[in-house]
Amino acid sequence: MRVVAGNYGGRPLKSLAGQTTRPTTDKVKGAIFNMIGPYFDGGRVLDLYAGSGGLAIEAVSRGMTSALLVEKDRRAQTVIQENIRMTKEEDKFSLWKMEATRALARLDQVFDLVLLDPPYAKEQIVSDIENLAQRQLLSQEVLVVCETDKSVELPQEIAGLSIWKQKNYGISKVTVYVR
Q: Which domain of life is it from (predicted)?
């Protein structure tokens, strides 16, 4: 795994061995950012199920100002910290070491890009988006990127957001919601 493009482009990313996380492949990561960007002019990123941190790091590499990563797995947290150090811009990243539901209750800032890639066994996307919208944590121009198993059917609309783009990549499906 590596950062695909931007300021950190080409730098290697560590990933967690085993089945606890499913790192997004470089191919899918590149495709996601080509769908939504591919580059940004500032903004805040929320990566609610950070895994290795690769998606949030890619977003900052491509121009987002800062990223908040949430991860409950201790081994994954260690990998995220190593990957953040690799950027040499640690001040752009915050890591919250807790479950997503606990983090959602504590959030108090508005996000321009939300990355939702929960473990396939625990699909939480609809409730996560509803929670973020209800608490007014989504900017007017927000992009919500959801990565799921290709068999998962998400609703056309969630909390005032509608599917803008959707595409399958192997066993994964990427769905992007906008206002």
A: Bacteria
- Cβ-Cβ contacts under 8 Å for 54 (sequence gap 6 or more): 1, 3, 13, 15, 23, 24, 29, 83
Query: How many CB atoms sit inside 10 A of residue 31's CB?
Result: 18
CB 156 within 8 Å of CB 162: yes
The pLDDT tens digits of the residues spanning 119-143 come to: 764 468 999 999 999 999 999 999 9
Q: In what order do the strands lie in the sheet with 93-96?
A: 93-96, 66-70, 44-47, 111-116, 138-149, 172-178, 161-169, 157-158
CATH class of the domain whose range is 26-178 = alpha beta
The tokens of 83 are what? 């990957």
Enter the tokens of residue 71: 């991860």
Place of tokens 């599917």: 163
In angstroms, the CA 34 to CA 30 distance is 6
Query: Where are the domains positioned within the chain?
Result: 26-178
| Cα–Cα nearest to 32, from 72, 62, 71 | 62
Q: How, if at all, do strands 157-158 and 161-169 pair?
A: antiparallel
Q: Could you report the per-residue pLDDT of 63-112, keeping only the tens digit for each?
A: 999 999 999 999 999 999 999 999 999 999 999 999 999 999 999 999 99
The CA distances from residue 102 to 6, 44, 97, 107, 130, in Å, are: 32, 19, 10, 9, 15
